[in-house]
Design brief:
six-stranded antiparallel beta barrel; 4 helices; Thrombin, subunit H; about 260 residues
């Protein structure tokens, strides 16, 4: 308190000056029409700009909540559609938001804002608007870590169309819009623009989920197999809201596969 009083005593002349200036300005604005009009206009402009910013922030918050609701509804609808199209076979789908994503390295990854308490687990596939994006490899209570298609350390099982041959899909950095379909038999028939879809063999995705399209570049042939260029369908720079999915009975299928005795030589 003593320090405050000393400060006021030291600068009392300046404080009195500013107080009188404020009183004079208030009297001038209130008693003269033109300055008052300019002041009101300026005040309205400031207040309007501030209210506009608040309104934009409020709308963004509302849109985010609406997007989350739509994501949940879309996940439920996709589950129902899949069950109807696959004779009652169930597909668990959950919505999530990407909170981190990398696309500039050879070992890219992403993090989702949902975890085990939301039904997510390791091995689930991740898609965006019906397009394959990647898979989850690790989960905590509230977050999940995943690897996208654009990661040189992972391979994917894919096929040409819904009845074509199955091959390995790999990504070669740095172009995040292109990949390769390798080990295609030389007898495979295809054309530029043909769709590349998930095979369903790995269990991350159901079969038939879009991955991309065959490019118009000339296929490579190593004497035994073909390698074909692929244009990826996912826009990895714009990942935001995604869906995680898992075929419900895949664990039973995997258990049966592991219990099958090895065939003899």
């Amino acid at each position: 308190m003593r320090n405050l009083w000393n400060l006021i005593t030291q600068y009392h002349i300046a404080l009195v000056f500013f107080a009188l200036q404020a009183l004079a300005l208030g009297w001038f604005v209130s008693s003269h029409g033109y300055p008052r009009g300019k002041w009101v206009k300026q005040s309205l402009a400031w207040q309007g700009a501030w209210n506009q910013k608040l309104g934009q922030w409020s709308r963004l918050t509302e849109l985010d909540a609406l997007n989350r609701e739509l994501l949940t509804e879309n996940a439920q609808l996709r589950s129902l559609v899949y069950a109807q199209e696959n004779e009652g076979r169930e597909l668990s789908i959950y919505g999530a938001q990407v909170v981190r994503f990398t696309w500039t390295s050879s070992a890219n990854h992403f993090i989702l804002d949902k975890g085990t308490k939301n039904g997510l687990r390791s091995g689930m596939g991740v898609s965006q608007n019906g397009i394959a994006v990647g898979r989850i490899i690790e989960t905590s209570d509230a977050f999940s870590l995943g690897l996208p298609i654009i990661n040189q350390e992972v391979e994917w099982s894919a096929r040409i169309g819904h009845s074509g041959p199955v091959a390995r899909l790999v990504w070669n950095a740095p172009d995040i819009s292109r990949a390769q379909l390798q080990d295609l038999p030389r007898s495979a028939t295809f054309s530029p623009g043909d769709s590349i879809v998930t095979s369903g063999f790995q269990g991350y995705f159901p079969d038939g989920l879009l991955i991309g399209w065959i490019s118009d570049e000339t296929p490579e042939f190593d004497g035994q197999f073909l390698t074909v260029g692929i244009n990826l369908a996912a826009d990895f720079r714009a990942l935001n809201y995604v869906e995680t999915m898992s075929v419900v009975d895949w664990e039973s299928i995997e258990a049966l596969s592991q219990s099958t005795p090895d065939a003899g030589p």
